[in-house]
Structure formats: structure tokens, C-alpha cells
Design brief:
The protein is of the alpha/beta class and about 140 residues long. The chain has one domain: 3-Layer(aba) Sandwich (Rossmann fold), CATH 3.40.50. The protein is about 35% helix and about 20% strand. It has five helices and five strands. The protein has a five-stranded parallel β-sheet, with helices on both faces. It is globular.
Length: about 140
């Protein structure tokens, strides 16, 4: 069976509440339930943390057993060498996802420390980016 984990980083626990003009009105738990129902044969799980070390720990935990990881590291995308190194250290394919088009935002968001260690990057498609990432992982 395929098992894919979605890992969300800082402030993504506030989806549906924060900056709705950028991130939309739907909260992630509701979206995740609809995503799970779209893939009944897929073991799909979810983890969110506002703490960099917890994200590194989760990547280490699942990085040798999962079929794939969908990772929205939030602002850590642009700052975290530790998360980049954790992605490089595990064999599982990781797809980097961003809800907004980071290239249409502030210049500091245009650089990802994670991207070079990821299978691919999806940005700017709202929450549907998570589905696109899952599709890319289960297509292998």
C-alpha cells in the first residue's frame, strides 16, 4: 500500500483564519478529510508543527518507510538548512508545496533551501497543490 504523509510547517495550523486573501478560507483539517476521501486506497497522514526540530524529527521518522512526503515548510523553506539536510538524508521522495505563488511575493520568498533536495516544487495553486503533489508521488 502507498503511504504518503503531508507535513506542514509554521503557521499553517491557522489556515482559514490567517491572511485569507493569500491562503484562502478553508482550514486544513477539512481539506485533509476531503483529500483522504479522494484516495481511499492510499494511507494518507498529516503532521503539523511550528517547530523546526519537530519537522526534522518527523522527516527522520518517516523518511525510510513512507512512499512519499508532501512538505509545506512555510517560512522554514527560506531559512532552514536543517530541514534541507533532513530531506537529503532520507531516501523518500519529497515534494515541496506552497499554497501561494511565492515568486509573486516578497523577494526573500523566491529562494528555497529545500528545493534542490526535493523531487519537485508546486506553488501557487492554493490547497490543490497538495493533491497535485500526492498525484506525483503515487504515479511513480
Amino acid at each position: 500500500m502507498n503511504n504518503v504523509i503531508i507535513i506542514n510547517g509554521p503557521n499553517l495550523n491557522l489556515l482559514g483564519v490567517r491572511e485569507k486573501s493569500i491562503y484562502g478560507e478553508q482550514d486544513f483539517p477539512a481539506y485533509f478529510e476531503s483529500l483522504k476521501s479522494s484516495y481511499p486506497t492510499l494511507e494518507l497522514s498529516y503532521f503539523q508543527s511550528n517547530h523546526e526540530g519537530a519537522i526534522v524529527d518527523k522527516l527522520h521518522e518517516v523518511g525510510f518507510s513512507a512512499t512519499g512526503v508532501v512538505l509545506n515548510a512555510g517560512a522554514y523553506t527560506h531559512t532552514s538548512l536543517a530541514i534541507a539536510d533532513a530531506i537529503a538524508a532520507v531516501p523518500v521522495p519529497v515534494v515541496e508545496v506552497h499554497i501561494s505563488n511565492v515568486y509573486a511575493r516578497e523577494p526573500f520568498r523566491h529562494h528555497s533551501y529545500l528545493a534542490k533536495n526535493c523531487k519537485g516544487v508546486i506553488c501557487g495553486f492554493g490547497l490543490d497543490g497538495y493533491r497535485l503533489a500526492v498525484e506525483s508521488l503515487i504515479a511513480e
